[in-house]
């Protein structure tokens, strides 16, 4: 059995960006990672422009300027100014070549055809220079950069319509368990409604990944081997749910062995999720996740997520970790490390009731996981605790 940190280190040292890439229109690139650096095809901005509404001045000693023309956003005009002259100008408009500065409208008094400035002006004031954001030929975004709304918009502002991104990992889910039925079936004695398929599918979708296949497997060695074999075909990651513990009807470990999967680790000193397995078959990875739903999801967030992010070209080590004051006393003498469902509110974190690995009710309300290291802790209210922010959690 290995420690959480060792397990995570094994995942990270085995995770490299997928080699293949694809060229996609910008509007299909949200959350994708650049396969190579992007070269700026133009200067940005591509002309000198005014950053305010006001007057573009050809500077002289006096505070009064005569207004000779007007330039608004989108105009191509380049009125010629003599010393002491100005043009009315608006935000985003081209600054005439021989204007020295722009003064904000709010700092002027307008007369008929003249304007008096009420504040000192420096040369270049309120003028955004050509290329001041990015110069043509520069590489403003590097290989691996994840493209968020801002990145997509930035590329569009350079006139770029398509970009080369790392392809997405192909993920297959294998669900095991004789007791599992779907919500369309009648709930009979001994059966439970299956929930890990949607759990994993949705957690993947949150990362922009569509599951390519979900298979349901009876607890038998033969069927487990068959379904795993199919899953490995054309998958970068196989996620197995359940059947990885030590029960007589847990066949995943044996099936993986028979399929010659290389074990990287099995069993982590953590709760939930102790019987986690991570291995490799050819170029593909497999995580066998313990079937209790809170274990499945904790293991997904802590170990699968960093692998996914790195395969798709990013550099993340997983969920963002922050140190936050705990809202109450907390102590534990548990030898294993704990990932506890929690909520962050008013800049403090509270551990929720219902921490058993079978319970989703607390997870469904959580926006964070509190990490308690091995051998437990004795925490007073207000002490700092390491807290992992679940995806989409924004600290307020
Ligand atoms: P296992 O890891 O297969 O020993 O399963 C541990 C517990 O998780 C058992 O109580 C299972 O019934 C439950 N479980 C396993 N797989 C699922 C699933 N796909 N959906 C909901 N519960 C599950
Ligand atoms: Mg099972």
If you had to describe this structure to a student in words, what would you say it looks like?
By secondary structure, the protein is of the alpha+beta class. The chain contains seven helices and 26 strands. The chain has helices at residues 4-13, 149-157, 196-205, 221-232, 252-258, 293-311, 361-365, and strands at residues 21-25, 49-50, 54-57, 64-71, 85-89, 101-104, 108-110, 114-117, 127-128, 162-166, 171-176, 180-181, 192-193, 213-217, 237-241, 262-266, 270-271, 277-281, 284-289, 321-325, 330-332, 337-345, 348-351, 368-372, 377-379, 384-389. The strands form seven sheets. A six-stranded mixed β-sheet has the order 6-3-5-4-8-7, with no helix packed on it. Strands 14-11-15-19-18-16 form a six-stranded mixed β-sheet, with helices on both faces. A hairpin with a 2-residue loop joins strand 22 (337-345) and strand 23 (348-351). The longest helix has 19 residues, at 293-311. It is elongated. The site of magnesium ion has 6 residues, from loops.
Helical coverage, percent range:
10-25%
The N- to C-terminal Cα distance equals 38 Å
Return the structural class: alpha+beta
Sheet with most strands: 6 strands, mixed
Shape: elongated
- What number is the mean pLDDT? 97
Q: How many individual β-strands?
A: 26
Radius of gyration: 30 Å
Strand content: 25-35%
Bound molecules: adenosine monophosphate, magnesium ion
Number of helices: 7
């Amino acid at each position: 059995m290995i420690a959480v940190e060792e397990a995570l280190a094994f995942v990270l040292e085995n995770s490299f960006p997928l080699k293949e890439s694809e060229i996609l229109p910008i509007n299909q690139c949200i959350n994708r990672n650049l396969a190579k650096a992007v070269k700026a095809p133009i200067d940005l901005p591509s002309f000198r422009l005014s950053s305010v509404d006001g007057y573009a001045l050809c500077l002289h000693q006096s505070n009064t300027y005569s207004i000779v023309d007007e330039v608004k956003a989108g105009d191509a005009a380049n009125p010629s100014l003599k010393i002491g002259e100005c043009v009315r100008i608006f935000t985003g408009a081209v600054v005439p070549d021989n204007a020295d500065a722009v003064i904000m409208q709010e700092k002027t008094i307008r007369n008929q055809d003249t304007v008096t400035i009420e504040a000192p002006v420096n040369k270049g004031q309120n003028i955004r220079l050509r290329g001041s954001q990015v110069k043509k030929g520069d590489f403003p975004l590097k290989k691996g950069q994840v493209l968020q709304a801002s990145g997509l918009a930035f590329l569009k502002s350079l006139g770029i319509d398509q970009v080369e991104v790392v392809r997405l990992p192909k993920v297959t889910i294998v669900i095991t368990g004789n007791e599992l039925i779907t919500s369309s079936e009648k709930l009979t004695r001994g059966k439970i409604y299956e929930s890990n398929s949607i759990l994993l599918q949705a957690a993947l979708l949150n990362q922009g990944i569509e599951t390519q296949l979900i298979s349901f497997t009876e607890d038998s060695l033969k069927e487990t081997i068959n379904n795993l074999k199919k899953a490995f075909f054309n998958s970068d990651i196989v996620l197995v749910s359940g059947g990885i513990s030590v029960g007589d009807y847990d066949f995943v470990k044996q099936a993986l062995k028979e399929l010659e999967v290389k074990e990287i680790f099995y069993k982590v000193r953590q709760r939930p999720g102790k019987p986690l397995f991570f291995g490799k078959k050819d170029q593909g990875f497999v995580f066998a996740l313990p079937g209790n739903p809170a274990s499945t999801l904790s293991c997904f967030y802590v170990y699968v997520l960093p692998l996914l992010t790195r395969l798709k070209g990013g550099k993340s080590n997983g969920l963002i970790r922050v140190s936050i004051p705990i809202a109450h006393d907390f102590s534990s003498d548990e030898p294993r490390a704990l990932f506890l469902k929690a909520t962050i509110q008013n800049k403090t974190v509270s551990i929720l009731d219902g921490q058993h690995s079978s319970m989703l009710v607390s997870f469904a309300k959580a926006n964070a996981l509190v990490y308690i290291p091995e051998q437990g802790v004795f925490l007073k209210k207000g002490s700092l605790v390491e807290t992992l922010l679940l995806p989409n959690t924004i600290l307020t």
